[in-house]
Amino acid sequence: MLKSKLKEALICFKAGRVTAPFPLGPEPNPPGDWFRGKIEVDVEKCIGCGGCANVCPARLIEITDSEHTRILEYFLNRCTYCGRCAEVCPENAITMTREYQLATNDNQDLYIRNELYMGTCGRCGRCFKPKSALDKMMVTGFRQKGQA
Predict the structure, then answer these.
(1) DSSP secondary structure string, 82-103?
(2) Distances in Å between the alpha carbon of 79 and those of 42, 46, 115, 124, 148?
(3) What's the CA gap between 45 and 126, in Å, rounded?
(4) What is the pLDDT of residues 77-112, one digit of tens each?
(5) Would the pTM count as exceeding 0.85?
(6) Contact 50, 116 (CB under 8 A)
C-alpha cells in the first residue's frame, strides 16, 4: 500500500504546476471563438422584436411597452451565458464578449436599459421600429396643442 502511494506521489510531482496564478497574475481568456462571456447590446441595431426575451432560460430580459415606446431591460446578474439571445437576434444586436470577470459591488454595472421608439402600423396596429429619425418625428404628440 505504501508503495502505491509513493508511486502516485511521484506521478503528481512530475506533472509540475497545473494551476493558473490567477489572484497574483492576469487570467488569460480561453482560446477559440466558442467562448461566451458577458452580453453586449448594440442599441442602434436592435429592432425590439423580443426574440431574445422569448428564448432566455434565465428570464433576464424584461420587455415593457408604453404608447410608443418599448423598453428592454437586461438584468445581467441572472445571466447563465448560454448565448441563446445572441443566436436568435435577427439583426445581430446582441453579441457575446470575452469579458467574464464581472464581480462588482454595484448592481447597476450589470444592468442594461434599451429604450426604443416604436411606430404603429395604421392598418393592423402592430408596433415596428421606424427606419429613420424623420419617421420618428411624424408622431402625434410632438407638437404642442394649438400649434398648426
Answers:
(1) --HHHHH-TT--EEE-S-----
(2) 18, 19, 20, 35, 49
(3) 20
(4) 999 989 999 999 988 999 998 887 788 888 888 899
(5) no
(6) no
